[in-house]
Design goal:
The protein has 187 residues and is α/β, with parallel strands linked by helices. It has six helices and six strands, in the order E-H-E-H-H-E-H-E-H-E-E-H. Helix 1 links the parallel strand 1 and strand 2. The radius of gyration is 15 Å and the shape is globular.
Length: 187
């Protein structure tokens, strides 16, 4: 039996779960010490579109929560970020993948300790304004950084780590090499 099956809900049970996804390093290739400042910088991870398509079918809802400190640092504008996200949405649309149920970003600097910036849980709390039936006991966070896992800890979510060589930590519940590998484990 796959060891991940001990932690993850069954595929059938996932229909009652909310899936929170980080963006950089999970959906798109991470850029070490920089940001996807323009659409050309945004490169989807291998298998990400297929994985998103399957996740939208498997889970009750899929929500993106992403820190985007590049906006706060002034190296990109919110319009630049919108253009990057438009490329992601166009890729999803072209593949027939439904959009996310919601997407939130925190443009704040790390030092600002803003309640929206991961690992603070402001983005999680905001989802409650949109989904009054959201149950954090039936939610999973998929991310590649220590901040993603610390965010999940704030409300007790199951923590799925996507491997990223630039981060060395070990406080996840399960780990996969890619978003696609996570989906394949659920199938």
């Amino acid at each position: 039996m796959n060891e991940h099956k001990n932690y993850l809900p069954s595929k059938e049970d996932c229909a009652a779960y909310t899936l929170f996804l980080d963006r950089d390093g999970v959906i798109n290739e991470p850029i070490v010490d920089d940001y996807a400042r323009k659409p050309a910088d945004f490169i989807l991870c291998e298998g990400a579109i297929d994985a998103l398509n399957e996740l939208k079918v498997i889970f009750k809802r899929v929500i993106v929560v992403t820190n985007q400190q590049g906006v706060g640092r002034g190296v990109m504008s919110e319009r630049d970020l919108e253009d990057v996200h438009l490329k992601m949405y166009d890729s999803m649309k072209d593949a027939g993948v439904e959009y996310f149920d919601a997407a939130f970003f925190a443009p704040y600097l790390r030092d600002a300790n803003h309640t929206w910036r991961k690992p603070s849980n402001g983005m999680y709390m905001k989802t409650l304004d949109y989904f009054d039936d959201l149950d954090f006991d039936k939610a999973i966070m998929v991310g590649d950084s220590p901040g993603d896992m610390a965010l999940a800890d704030t409300v007790g979510l199951l923590k799925v780590k996507i491997s990223n060589p630039q981060f060395n930590f070990d406080n996840q519940d399960v780990q996969f090499d890619s978003l696609k590998a996570f989906v394949d484990c659920l199938s």
